[in-house]
From TrEMBL:
Residues 88-132 form the TM2 domain. The keyword Transmembrane applies. The chain crosses the membrane at residues 90-109, 116-139, 145-167. This is TM2 domain-containing protein. InterPro entries: TM2. Residues 1-15, 53-70 have a biased composition (Polar residues). Its main location: membrane. It comes from the Bacteria. The keyword ATP-binding does not apply.
Length: 186
């Protein structure tokens, strides 16, 4: 409601109930029982029509379908070809056995975080051992060298086990577990 001078809206006066309705300019006419609900909310909350078998077989992707429902005839996710999977499995297994303490097999499979963890524990641990041994005039080496030898041995055992696990899995299992599923360890 405007004031007598038409300078703006006077919020102190009450207006009749039919003056307070605000609709977008493009809103269609709606029945009186739905006047309180904007048309876009009514459309969004209306239940979807049930699917018929003809429409299900034609449409593989429906953007309104909830993500928890299974799709009709889903195609499996193919990252690599069958021959490529066996070669990747072989290379990853050999890298794990021979350069596993440096995390080479993890980097090869695209798992950079576990690869960096293995690399930093190995190289960083030996670097820290060397620096602390020099700073403490060799006394730190008495404790840190056996400790790093244990850490290096543990990394060797883990990487050899991972290499054997990679090599003994079938191609489909390797693909699903390490390439598609991106499993970090074992």
């Amino acid at each position: 409601m405007t004031n007598p001078e038409n300078e703006g809206v006077n919020l102190n006066k009450t207006a009749p109930a039919n003056d307070l309705r605000i609709d977008p300019p493009h809103a269609p006419q709606v029945p009186p029982h739905q006047q309180d609900v904007p048309s876009w909310i009514d459309e969004a909350t209306r239940p979807a029509a049930p699917r018929t078998p003809e429409t299900q077989s034609q449409a593989y992707f429906n953007p309104r379908q909830p993500s928890g429902e299974a799709t009709i005839n889903p195609e499996p996710l193919r990252i690599t070809q069958a021959g490529d999977i066996s070669s990747r499995k072989l290379v990853a297994g050999l890298l794990a056995i021979f350069l596993g303490t440096l995390g080479a097999h993890k980097f090869y499979l695209g798992r950079t975080t576990p690869g960096l963890m293995m690399l930093l524990v190995n190289i960083g641990g030996w670097f820290l051992t060397g620096v602390l041994s020099i700073v403490t005039f060799g006394i730190g080496a008495l404790v840190l060298v056996p400790l790093m030898t244990l850490v290096f041995t543990a990394l060797c055992i883990v990487s050899i086990i991972e290499g054997v696990v990679y090599l003994t899995r079938s191609d489909e299992e390797f693909n699903q577990t390490y390439l598609v599923g991106r499993k970090d360890w074992f």
